[in-house]
Inverse folding.
């Protein structure tokens, strides 16, 4: 340890019921390095630190694993091997590959998280081409959607896992932005919505839209086609389709109807 007697970092205790041994072993080794505890002469100190860091139930378990010897009789490396053999599960290659190939992206899992989980699942698969296996499974196991469709269209010779993750995230972000409140719709939508809002009901008498039928000055004029009052000839439904009249246009027939009505 450093000459000042000050230790660097925080070394927590290890309880096998709530902690992962592999992660803890990595952390304690880094703590040894940070505090300059290394070399064969330091093994006695390492053993004392490790044993004192074990929780009560874990210390009892380690003592049982050491039988017929006591933990005090074992070297540091022997204690670590005991814990390695006990806490590290035996890996079977094809079983690990089965877990890898059967995995799929779950709801709420980002593409970055999905790729990271696949890397963890591939740790003991011993693939001959790890990156190719990861890329294939990343795309094949993705949730159905635009992101996967986009990747299906890519040149697989030019695609890497990192590029696939970036592309999928870009498509996801674009979709989220497009779906956000206030996002602009396809071209023409804004114009169509304006016309839908401002479209007025046309007068059944003359066809204009700047007044209602009961306010039309032609409401008492006779139709020159059917002879009935209440509409002009161009609005007559007898024998042909009702005609729309552009607002503000001059219609000579209207004047003619008024004069002869």
């Amino acid at each position: 340890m450093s000459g000042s007697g000050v230790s660097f970092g925080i070394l927590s205790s290890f309880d096998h019921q709530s902690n992962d041994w592999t992660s803890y072993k990595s952390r304690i080794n880094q703590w040894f390095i940070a505090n300059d505890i290394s070399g064969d002469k330091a093994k006695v100190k390492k053993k004392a630190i490790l044993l004192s860091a074990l929780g009560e139930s874990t210390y009892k378990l380690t003592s049982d694993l050491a039988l017929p010897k006591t933990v005090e009789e074992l070297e540091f490396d022997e204690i670590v091997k005991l814990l390695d053999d006990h806490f590290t599960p035996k890996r079977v290659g094809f079983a690990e590959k089965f877990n890898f190939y059967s995995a799929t992206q779950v709801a709420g899992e980002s593409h970055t998280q999905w790729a990271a989980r696949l890397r963890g699942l591939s740790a003991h698969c011993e693939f001959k081409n790890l990156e190719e296996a990861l890329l294939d499974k990343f795309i094949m196991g993705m949730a159905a959607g635009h992101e996967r469709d986009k990747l299906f269209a890519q040149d697989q010779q030019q695609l890497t896992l990192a590029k696939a993750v970036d592309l999928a995230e870009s498509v996801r972000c674009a979709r989220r932005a497009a779906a956000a409140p206030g996002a602009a719709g396809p071209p023409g939508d804004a114009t169509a919505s304006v016309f839908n809002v401002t479209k007025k009901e046309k007068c059944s008498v003359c066809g204009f839209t700047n007044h209602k039928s009961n306010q039309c000055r032609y409401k008492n004029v006779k139709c020159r086609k059917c002879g009935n009052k209440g509409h002009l000839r161009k609005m007559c439904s007898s024998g042909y389709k009702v005609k729309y009249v552009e607002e503000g246009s001059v219609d000579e027939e209207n004047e003619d109807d008024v004069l002869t009505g």
Remarks:
- Residues 190-195, 240-261 have pLDDT under 50 and may be disordered.
- The longest helix spans residues 161-179.
- The radius of gyration is 41 Å.
